[in-house]
Amino acid sequence: MAQKDVPPRWDRKMQQRLARGEAAALGEMYDRFASLVHSLAHRVLGDERAADRVTREVFAHVWEHPETYDPKQGPLRSWVAAVTHRLAVQRLRATETAALPQGESGSAQELESKLRRASVAARADYIVHSMPAPLRAALELAYFQRRDYRQTAADLGVTEDEARRRLRLGLQLLSTAHNVGTPPGYGGAV
Amino acid sequence: MSSAGGFEAHEGNGEHRGDDERDEYLGRDEDEFGGAADTGSAAGGGAGDGDVPSGTGGTGPGGPPRIPLPRASVEDGGQPLPGPADLGSPAPVPLDLSHDVLKSLLGAWALAACSPAETAAVEEHLGACGSCADEALRLREAVGLLHQPESLDLDPALRTRVLQSCLNRRPPGIPVPEWASPYDAETARLDALLQDFGDAEWHAPVRLRWFEADQATSRRTTVAGVIAHLLSVDGLVAMALGLEDPLAEVLERDKTREQGSVAGPAGRTEAFWRTSHFPPTRSVRAPWREQSHSLVRTVSFTGGAGGLTVPYDDFQLPLHDAMLDRAFECWVHAEDIAEAVDYPYDPPAPRHLNKMIDLAARMLPTALAERRRAGLSAPGQTPHLVPAGAPGRSLRLEIEGAAGGEWLIPLDSPAAVGSAEFEVAHVALDGVEFCKLAAGHVPPEEAAAGQVGDREAIRDVLFAAAGLSRM
Question: In what residue span(s) does the RNA polymerase sigma-70 region domain sit (chain A) (predicted)?
Fold first, then answer.
């Protein structure tokens, strides 16, 4: 799936390259993160064209304001995810608010809970996407392939203890998706 | 499961696996975990004991039942359930498990991935242990967040649109040169094609086809072998730019064998293939992509200045033409790969395709001269001597479609200038068709859609176009 072992040095260098306006760096950013950005936006908005538009906004932000990324706060990947999250939720709020019947407080509450659901779902996707591969593999076997934990252990060539540990830890990570108000992995510092 | 009577209030949720399930619980825990959700550090820090902090102090005695039932178990996946006789005992007898073991089972329990006896033991325990009950609830909610990943196929055209809109908003300080953008776009398109390839795709057989001495030639390899080929030949440009030769190590090992030239595209590719201990695998993708990125980056800095040329085996190309040539090859081989794995693949953007056609058209006069030297031209044809820079006999190459245009190909000397006044023949072809001809994928006899004029001249030009192809 995603490239995991990218050293922070790559992140810092990328930021410098973007800052001095290197178009080739923008292309590399896109090649590395476009599928993450697009799928998160799609998870929030549920619409292909809206996700395209958010993808464009995210890279425009990255390109115009690379200085707003602070390498000390975390990896570039998390920052890009956080920017995506913020812009996608913003867009969802705007389109849903426009569609809202006037003066009905019930609908406003529904809107808030819809936004919250979309946020949590997108964060969950990001967490699954970026969790350590062994945890993800265990979850995929147990959930999508419907293997029990003993079969999961056998499939992965690990002990049953280890399979249980991975399933539990994977779900613990995933449960942090409910931390509303905190963009994924970036402490809200966008 | 029904033995745990306290959970029955949540019976309705037991079967859910989608978005709805968590709604009921969503409001409750959202403020309980204040920590940053950096999964990387959580994975490192939490790996030992697996305890995620929870703000709730356990289930109060009078509180409502909070633990939803697990989702439908593995056995319920559309298959008939075993009859009661197969189950042995009517209800599994709860096992006597320690707290630590029960706690370790919570993830598997939440995923319905335990044995019935373990499930019963866990559920009994949850009635008695507040901290496990809290965690069980949290993990059950987390299961509801698992989604089948959506198809990640991005529209390849989106890249161009997104990058262009960025560059319009903030003009680049260091742009990618115009002549490098086809290479940038084609390598990105191929990389996107490779994105979801599994082992079967990487090892799918591919036949590379080209023309040599007017004969169709081919060589068998795999998808991974094609990427190794692109890596090897792109390496010629990398070396011309002063970058590292991706084949340095391979060629060092290969020296002992002395199997002819390893200078040109074919020689380097063959050296790569025969020196690898194993057939190329998906592991060639990263070095290929890294090199293609660094080529784009490097030419952005060096530009076309300094008259850099890229030496191939028996000819050389100016840097900007070499980058066009590599873009062309990248597309042609991406087509080979797409065909091998039965994926659709579009031609390049018209403005890029147009530049590739232009390169081929500009290379034709030299190719024609080489055919004459090699005795491949039609016998009896005596080229008119044309002084350098003067107009000479010409063929009008008309390319149709959005990438199209017209080129006057001087027939008698690369030094002559194409001239409408001395036009002796006219060939009309579709742009993609012409590129397939120049790639050696279409026999020259079958290529031209329309032709008027000197038959021999037309035949010569079409064969010369096919002869531009190489491995």
Answer: 29-94
* Domain extent at residue B119: 5-143
State ipTM.
0.82
3-state helix/strand/coil string of chain A: CCCCCCCHHHHHHHHHHHHCCEHHHHHHHHHHHHHHHHHHHHHHHCCHHHHHHHHHHHHHHHHHCHHHCCHHHCCHHHHHHHHHHHHHHHHHHHHHHHCCCCCCHHHHHHHHHHHHHHHHHHHHHHHHHHCCHHHHHHHHHHHHCCCCHHHHHHHHCCCHHHHHHHHHHHHHHHHHHHCCCCCCCCCCCC
Cα–Cα nearest to B1, from B71, B59, B50, B61: B71
Report CB contact under 8 Å: A60, B146.
no
The CA distance from A163 to A160, in Å, is 5
Q: How far apart are CA B114 and CA B17, in angstroms?
A: 17
This prediction has a pTM of: 0.77
Task: Enumerate residues 6+ apart whose C-beta is below 8 A from A19.
Answer: A66, A67
CATH for B404? 3.30.1050
Among residues B315, B346, B377, the one where a domain terminates is B346
Residue B428 Ramachandran class (φ > 0 left, ψ -120 to 50 alpha, else beta): beta
pLDDT of residue B18: 39
- What CATH number corresponds to the domain at position B189? 1.20.120
CA–CA gap between residue B449 and residue B234 (Å, rounded)? 33
pLDDT digits over B26-77, tens only? 333 333 333 333 433 433 333 344 444 444 444 444 444 455 555 555 444 4
CA contacts within 13 A on the Cβ side of A67: 4
CB A2 within 8 A of CB A36: yes
Q: Which amino acid is at B374?
A: A
- Retrieve residue B370's tokens: 């080489």
Summarised one tens digit per residue, pLDDT across range A56-78 is 999 999 999 999 999 888 899 99
Question: Domain for residue B150, yes or no?
Answer: no
B146 touches chain A (CB under 8 A): yes
Specify the amino acid at residue B438. A
Mean pLDDT over B135-148 rounds to: 90
CATH 3.90.950.20 matches A8-131 = no
Residue tagged 């009309």 (tokens): B428
* Cβ–Cβ < 8 Å for B300, B177: yes
Q: What is the pLDDT of residues B330-379, one digit of tens each?
A: 999 999 999 999 999 999 999 999 999 999 999 999 999 988 888 887 65
Note whether B185 contacts A: Cβ–Cβ < 8 A: no
Contact flag A168-B19 (C-beta cutoff 8 Å): no
- Residue B122 sits in the same domain as residue B166: no
Interface test with A, best of B118, B162, B165 (most A CBs within 10 A): B162
In B150-169, the residues whose Cβ lies within 8 Å of chain A are 150, 152, 154-155, 158-159, 161-163, 165-167, 169
